Amino acid sequence: MKQFNSGAYLSSLNIDVMRFGLESISDLLAGLGHPQNDYPSVLVGGTNGKGSTAAMLASILEQSGLNVGLYTSPHLVDVCERIVVGGVRISRRDLDALIAEISRNVRQPITYFECLTAAAFLFFSRKRVDIAVCEVGLGGRLDATNVAKPLASIITNIALEHTDYLGKTLAAIAGEKAGIIKPNGICITAATQKRVLDVLSNVCATQNARLVRLGVDINMKSHRDKSVTYEGEERTIKKLTLPLRGRHQTANLALALAAVEILETKGFRIEDSAVRGGLAHTCWEARGEILCSRPLFLLDGAHNPAGITTLCRILKKDFFGRRIILIFSALADKDYRRMLGKILPLADRIFLPPLSTKRACPPRQLAAFAESLGHSAAISRSTASAVRQAFRCARKGDLIVACGSLYLAGEVKEIFSEMVCCDKKRYVK
C-alpha cells in the first residue's frame, strides 16, 4: 500500500487560497465527531498582537498546571509550529496521521487553513487538553476557528487590513472581527477608535454579550523600572515584567490577564505566581526578536502599516542613534507603500529580497516605490543574499532590521538555523 504523503496533500490544498465560510469546516468536523466541543477555548482575533496575546495567555495557563492547547498561524519555518500542547509542538508523525485521517473524511473541498484547523481541534481532543487558546486566522465571522464555542473572545485591536476580503472601512472590518463574539459571551478588547467600539458595542448588545475594554474596565500602569501593574475588574497584579519587546505588549498582556480573570469565574484557578511564571516562560518568535548581537540583528513580523508604526516606535526609542540596515519584503496584497513610507526614513541601507510565495510583491516594484520617495534600495537575489549583504556592510553599533512579512521572518529564521555562529564572526554556509 502506498504511504500517505501529508506534505503533498497539504500542498495540493494551496496555502495561498483563502475562502470565507464555515460550511466546509463544519461538515468536516461533524464527520470527525465535533472535536472542538470537547474542551473549553479562548478565541483571539484582531489586526495585530493576536499571536503575542495568545502566547502569553497559554503560557500563564500552563504554569497553572493546566494541559493547554495553542493554535496559531502562520508558521515561520515548520508547519508543526501551529499546533502546540503543553508547550510542545505536535510531532510530524502525529500531524501526518491526523491529516491522513482528515483526508479520508473530506466531503467538501477544504483549504490548507481549514485542514490544519481541523487537525488542531482533533489533536487537542485526543490530548485531552483542559483548555485551548486559538488565534483567529483572517477576519473572524467566517474564519475556520469560529466554529469553536469560546469562554471568552479577545479582539486585540482593529486597523485597515485585507480590505479586499474584510471591507474597505474600519467599521466593516470591525463587523467581521466581531463575528467571534458569541451569544451571552464576553469580548475583551484594546480597540480605541469610536467607529470600532460602536460596532463592538452593538454586536455585544445584539448577542447579549459583555464588552470589557482596556482603559475603561481594566487598566495597566507603567512604572519607571519598565514593570507594569494590571488593574482588573476583580484583581490587581503589581510589578509584572513584559516578556516581549515593545511597550505595545502592555496592551496585549492586559488582554491576556483579563481573560485570566474571566476564566477564574468559569472555575479555573490561576494564582499570581502562575501569571509571573507564565510571563517568564513566554516565547514568541519574530516579534522584536534579537537574533544576534554582533552585529545586532532584530527580526520583527510587522506586516501591515499599524505593525510597522509600532516597530518604528521601538526603533526610535530602544535603538536611538544606531545606523539601521533594513531588509524588507512584503506581500502584494499588503499596503507596502504605507509601510515603506514609515520605515524608509529610518534606514541608511536597504536590501529587498524576493519571497518564495506567489503572493509576494516583486522587489523591483518595492525598489521603484522606494526610489519615488527618494531612497535607493538594492535588490537581493534571495533572503540569504540580503542577510549576507547586510552583515558585510554592518559596522560596530549598527542595527540590522528584517521586517515587512511573516514569510520573510520565516526565511530569515531558516537562514539563521544554518549559520555558523560565534558573536565575533557569523557567516552563511
Q: What fraction of the residues are assigned to beta strands by DSSP?
A: 15-25%
Shape: globular
Strand order of the largest sheet: 4-3-2-5-1-6-7-8
How many helices? The count is: 15
Multimer state: single chain
Radius of gyration: 21 Å
Biggest sheet features: 8 strands, mixed
- DSSP, total strands: 19
Gap between N and C termini, in Å?
40 Å
Which structural category do the helix and sheet elements fall into? alpha/beta
Helix content: 25-40%
**Average of pLDDT:** 93
Regions with little confidence, pLDDT below 50 for 5+ residues: none
List keywords for this structure.
429 residues, alpha/beta, 8-stranded mixed beta sheet, 6-stranded mixed beta sheet, 15 helices, 19 strands, globular
Describe the structure.
- This protein has about 425 residues and is of the alpha/beta class.
- The protein is about 40% helix and about 20% strand.
- The chain contains 15 helices and 19 strands.
- It has helices at about 5-15, 25-30, 50-65, 90-105, 110-125, 165, 170-175, 195-205, 250-265, 270-280, 305-320, 335-345, 365-370, 385-395, 405-415; strands spanning about 40-45, 70, 85, 90, 130-135, 150-155, 185-190, 210-215, 220, 230, 235-240, 290-295, 295-300, 325-330, 350, 380, 400-405, 420, 425-429.
- Strands 4-3-2-5-1-6-7-8 form an 8-stranded mixed sheet, sandwiched between helices. The chain has a 6-stranded mixed sheet with strand order 12-13-17-14-15-16, with helices on both faces. It has a 3-stranded antiparallel sheet with strand order 9-10-11, covered by helices on one side.
- The longest helix has 17 residues, at about 250-265.
